[in-house]
Amino acid sequence: MERKAAIQLSLGFIVAVVFAVVLLSLSLSWLQGIFAGFTGITNDLTQQAQNKLRQTFEETNSNFAIWPNRYDLKRGEELKMSAGIKNNAEDGLSHMFVINIIPATASKSVCPDGDVNSCLAPGGKTLYEEMLTWVTWDMSSSVIQINQVGYKTISIKPDSQAKLGTYIFNVVACKDMSNYQQCTPETLNWGGASQQLAITLE
Predict the structure, then answer these.
(1) Is the pTM of this model over 0.90?
(2) What SS3 state is found at 129?
(3) Domain 42-201 sits in which CATH superfamily?
(4) How many CA atoms lie within 13 A of 107 on its CB side?
(5) Can you give the pLDDT at residue 37?
(6) How many CB atoms lie within 10 A of CB 139?
(7) What residues have CB less than 8 Å from 114, skipping those under 6 apart?
């Protein structure tokens, strides 16, 4: 009888442990889901971007580039990337550089006529205003020594309620400007042209 009772006790203990492990696993999965909803996912490509940009400057005549220039994101996720500026100024001197990021257009599924200043985003802002809130970057001017490369970190985090589709930004670099707002596709004086950044929400 004692042996039978001991076996039953052991089985009961094993069942209880298994039940506890299952409950713990379910609880952890639930908590991970909650925290993922709060924090989102960050795709940090800054180090990879700097390596790619360095390679670009070594292999081409470019003196301004971004990497990546297109990326697929889920709503609520964040992308961290880089812009690179190579100071190959003809005067052989160090110069001050700044970048600006400007909403340009969006796919027809988001903005039928492509004009981000006239299309509205969820919440009532213009799409231009909404896209600006997604982007943060190093807005300060930085001195880059001659024949050296400087990097600017860019973060893109679309709103979790944003419409699915492609959003395009113009990234521009300017030399000897202290205010990033003065650096526009019309006033850019470095890199030859705007670098387009396409973010597709899927």
Answers:
(1) no
(2) helix
(3) Immunoglobulins (2.60.40.10)
(4) 12
(5) 42
(6) 14
(7) 105, 106, 108
